Amino acid sequence: MVLFVQSVPHAHHPRHHYRLAAAVRAAGYDARTLAPQDLTPGQQDAAPVEYLPVRRSRPGRMLSGPLSVWKAARRRPAAIHVVSLDLLPWAVLLRLTGRFKVLYDSNEEYHSMMLIKEWLPVRSRAIVGRFVYWAEPWLAARLDAATTALPATQAKFEAAGVDSTLVRNFPPASLASGCERGEPAWDILLGGTVFEDTIPVLAQTAVELARLGMPDVRWIVAARSYGPREQAMLVSALDRAGVRDRFELRYNVPFIEMKDLMSRSRVGFVPYPGDVNYSARIPIRIFEYMACGLPFVASDLATTAEFTRGHDVADLVPAGDAVGYAEALAALLRDPERRADMSRRGPIVAAERYNWDRESRKLAALYERVLGAPS
User: Fold this and answer.
1) 200 and 330 assigned to the same domain
2) Which of 322, 323, 304 is nearest to 314 (CA)?
3) Of 25, 42, 59, 163, most Cβ neighbours within 10 A?
4) Which CATH number belongs to the domain containing residue 255 in this structure?
5) In contact, 355 and 173? CB cutoff 8 Å
6) Same domain? 288 vs 359
């Protein structure tokens, strides 16, 4: 058995569950997810799921790390793949027992993400970020292997001597199949991770669209990992901007249902604030939009441009530029012929360049090296 273990209440994470666990299971291993239950129930399993208790506070979640790893060890798996940064130290202690193969997945440039963590005191964020930059690869090097999602993380891990494999978040074939364009119910879709400091940019973009003569644009936001606090922040920002009535808000939409939202929207939106802390991010959503044939407007980060520029599947705008976002969105909404061309092109680019099959084979090869061929 291979257990994918995480500490956040998002057992059906798009990468950890629907990509990594599903691919390892498809390769012939008995892969399972062990994590706290999602904020929204009713998810469709890509691999069997066992739920951990949901910790209501952040300190409670972080202090529960030893218990989570211990519960995984009690199942006597052949391997444990921890996919949360706060579980990494406990994973190293578990590896020292010599009873299991232990792997780690790094899905972000975590040291830069520390700079935007609202729960950290502002003055301590840079210090914590520097510590994470050093500690994460040092700890990962004590494990059997690691997977990474970003080239920058992969380079850092390789320099530290980590046996790591870059496995990008390209869309699985199941997402692209059957994603035919339907009768639009919404004009603009913002799906996936919506960070707190992105909320003001979103609200201002809606205001700017009205100034461009498009006050009746229908928005849908499908925000991932949104609890009551984040929901209240989003509603409050839209109310203050006077645009709340234009938005349909959905929270923690099951991954499997995103295909329907994409197929019934005209344009996708992937905004970020004008902050260098996001410069290393590669949003999963851009690949899913392409695979589903949804034209989109995104922040002109170097990482986003690497996968979209020259393919005419998206329009890029400087990060944080609400006026630029609104102008690009308005231009696409007013040009159905260009949207249709982009919609046809997206699935072709995704299938030829950014498909999950190649990435899943890399993951299967890593597991065969660590565990041997599946029985």
Assistant:
1) yes
2) 304
3) 25
4) 3.40.50.2000
5) yes
6) no
Beta strand 145-148 with 247-251 is unpaired
Please identify every stretch of the chain with a pLDDT value under 70, giving residue numbers as ranges: 56-60, 176-178, 276
pLDDT score at 177: 67
Q: What is the dihedral of CA 282, 287, 290, 295, to 10 degrees?
A: -40
The domain containing residue 362 runs over which residues?
2-170+355-371
Q: Is 190 exposed, middle or buried (0-12, 13-18, 19+ CB in 10 A)?
A: buried
Q: pTM of the full predicted structure?
A: 0.89
Question: Which residue's entry shows tokens 């892969």?
Answer: 31
Residues 136 and 197 in one domain: no
Q: Quick one: 37 and 93 in the same domain?
A: yes
Exposure string of 53-82, with b = 16+ CB inside 10 Å and e = fewer, is: eebeeeeebeebbeebbebbbeeebbbbbb
